[in-house]
Amino acid sequence: MCAAALLLGCSGEVSVSRDLGASCSLHAECGERCLRDDAAPSRYPDGFCSASCDSERDCPAGAVCADVEGGVCLFACDDSESCAFLGAGWACVSESALRRGAGTASQDPAAPPQVKVCLGR
What's the whole-model pTM score? Predict the structure, then answer.
């Protein structure tokens, strides 16, 4: 998984790296943090390198800030086929977007905006 894999989807070309998308079991294997199955069963098959975020501008191209794990960057997707580059067990699902901080629109807690991201099934 550490070799560069490419996703061609709604967000353009995205590579898997230690910053986003590489499989992991320890934080030290990633640029910032490793999301693991034991932290959230089946959401991150084989672990997933990611970064904390407050809004989409904190994430690399092709990724969005999802309101999971306190706010993390995840690959954006159109459908489950666009998550296949991550391997078996990944699907395109809707999650709440995270947009907090100066210069971002206020989030309505009754109806938070949704984003489609790659997560474990």
Answer: 0.79
Angle at the Cα of 79 (from 69 to 74), degrees rounded to 5? 25
pLDDT in tens, 27-86: 999 999 999 876 555 799 889 999 999 999 999 999 999 999 999 999 999 999 999 999
85-91-93-98 Cα dihedral, nearest 10 degrees? -40
∠58-31-24 over CA atoms, to 5°?
Answer: 115
> Which single residue is written with the structure tokens 């986003």?
20
Q: Which residue from 19, 10, 16 is spatially nearest to 58, judged by alpha carbons? A: 19
CA distance linking residue 13 with residue 47, whole number of Å: 22
